[in-house]
């Protein structure tokens, strides 16, 4: 599939799943400092779905633009020996006072919610989810996350109603391939 078509399908599914929320609102991190949040976040674990299937060494990069929007770049590889690929998009705050709830758009006109559910005080790890609770991501500033912090974020995700039994770690290093709990490309 061509990358643009795949991106379009991904956003369509995410938008549809995001619109199915019938549960109480997600817990949200308090007082997210957007300037501090910007930068690279490695995807440590997620609920896999078709658009990210087989991706390794994945990361989201956020850059605050002068107009207040957020430039979003998704970095990934289809194998550790494959070249890096990217998707570029944008995000914005529907309510500028609520810095934990974003709208994300990778392909026009499709949009999805992005909720910062839990953010470590040192901005080293984060749990992101959709209000529908169908998809979630655990991310970190480094390619690895201490086991205790990973388990803490899984416990938060479970308490918020995410399907943690479906969560798989994303291989960030070659040695992660084939290990228990990791998604297999």
Description:
With 185 residues, the protein is an alpha+beta fold. The chain has a single domain, classed as Lipocalin. Helix content is 18%, strand content 31%. The chain has three helices and nine strands; from the N terminus they run ααββββββββαβ. An eight-stranded antiparallel barrel has the order 1-2-3-4-5-6-7-8. The radius of gyration is 15 Å and the shape is globular. 32% of the residues are buried. Residues 1-21 have low confidence and may be disordered. It is found in: Cell outer membrane. Keywords: Cell outer membrane, Lipid-binding, Lipoprotein, Membrane, Signal.
**Share in helix:** 10-25%
Spatial strand arrangement across the major sheet? 1-2-3-4-5-6-7-8
What is the CATH superfamily classification? Calycin beta-barrel core domain
Number of strands: 9
Query: What is the rounded Rg?
Result: 15 Å
CATH class: Mainly Beta
In terms of DSSP E residues, the strand content is 25-35%
Low-confidence stretches: 1-21
Strand-and-helix sequence, N→C?
A: HHEEEEEEEEHE
CATH architectural name: Beta Barrel
**Please, what is the average pLDDT?**
88
Please state the overall shape, judged from the principal axes of the Cα atoms: globular
Q: How many helix segments? A: 3
Biggest sheet, in brief? Answer: 8 strands, antiparallel, barrel
| CATH topology heading | Lipocalin
Secondary structure class reads alpha+beta
Question: Termini separation (Å)?
Answer: 16 Å
- What is the total number of structural domains? 1
């Amino acid at each position: 599939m061509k990358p643009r078509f795949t991106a379009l399908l991904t956003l369509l599914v995410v938008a549809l799943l995001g619109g199915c929320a019938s549960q109480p609102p997600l817990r949200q991190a308090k007082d997210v400092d957007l300037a501090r949040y910007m930068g690279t976040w490695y995807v440590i674990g997620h609920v896999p779905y078709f658009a990210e299937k087989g991706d390794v060494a994945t990361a989201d990069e956020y850059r605050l633009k002068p107009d207040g929007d957020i430039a979003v770049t998704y970095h990934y590889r289809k194998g550790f020996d494959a070249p890096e690929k990217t998707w570029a998009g944008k995000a914005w705050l529907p309510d500028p006072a609520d810095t934990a709830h974003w709208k994300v758009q990778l392909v026009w006109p499709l949009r999805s919610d992005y909720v910062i559910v839990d953010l470590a005080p040192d901005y080293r790890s984060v749990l992101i989810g959709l209000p529908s609770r169908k998809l979630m991501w655990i991310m970190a500033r480094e390619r690895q996350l201490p086991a205790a912090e990973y388990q803490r974020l899984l416990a938060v995700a479970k308490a918020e109603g995410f399907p943690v039994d479906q969560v798989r770690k994303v291989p960030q290093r070659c040695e992660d391939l084939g290990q228990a709990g990791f998604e297999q490309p």
